[in-house]
Structures are given as structure tokens and as C-alpha cells.
Specification:
Blueprint lengths: L31 H10 L12 H10 L10 H16 L5 H9 L4 H23 L1
Length: 131
Amino acid sequence: MAFLNFAQPLAGPDMAVGATPALPVPASDFTAQEWQIVALARTDGLHSLRGPSRFDRLRTWIFGEETSLVLASERLEALRRLAVEAWHKGYAVPLSALAAFRAAGFSTGQLELLLATISAGRHARTRRSFA
């Protein structure tokens, strides 16, 4: 037989003594590594989204050093590409970047969180430069 607490209106059954309510884990959060990728994308230029230029290929041919800004994980690379676009363009990111982000397994909640966080960072950066 269940006990209902009628002391509070519309109250459901009491929880067991000593039990704590389970807090829902937000599915729209990023891992620490993913937040680090977003922070590092702030310093990347839009040129990092394109392939190597003629000058880059010539420098590689002459000096033998090869630098690649592309991440090994496709999921993290999709996050980096969208973050770079968002740092430079705000909410006006191309649909192809959004599609790649969603195809990499990220949710709509994560997309909204990412764009809102970057927008706040962009706004804070412009406010500091005018102060």
C-alpha cells in the first residue's frame, strides 16, 4: 500500500527515506576535450578550413615540413570547423558546416549551446576592445 502526502497540494508519492532525486544529465553538453577544441578554434583563421595553398605546398616541397590543422577525428574536426566559422561569422554559419556537425553525431541542443557560447564570447571580445 502506497502512502501519499496530502500536506502539499498535488503532491505525488514520497520518496524513500534518504533517497536523493536523480538530476537529469544534460545531453546537450560537451566533454572537456570538445570545449578545448572550441577554445582553440577561436585563434584559427578561416584559411584553416581550406586545403593547403600553392605557397603551403611549395614550402612543404622546399623545406620538407608539413603542417596540418585538420584533426584526426572526424567528429572533432566537424566541431572545429563549425566553431571556426562561428567565431568569425557568428550565427551566419554555412549550412554545409551545420550538416557536417549534425552528421558527426552532435545534437540540436549541442548546436544551440555552441553557437550561444561563441556568440557570448564574441560579444565580450568586442565590448573589451571598445572599453
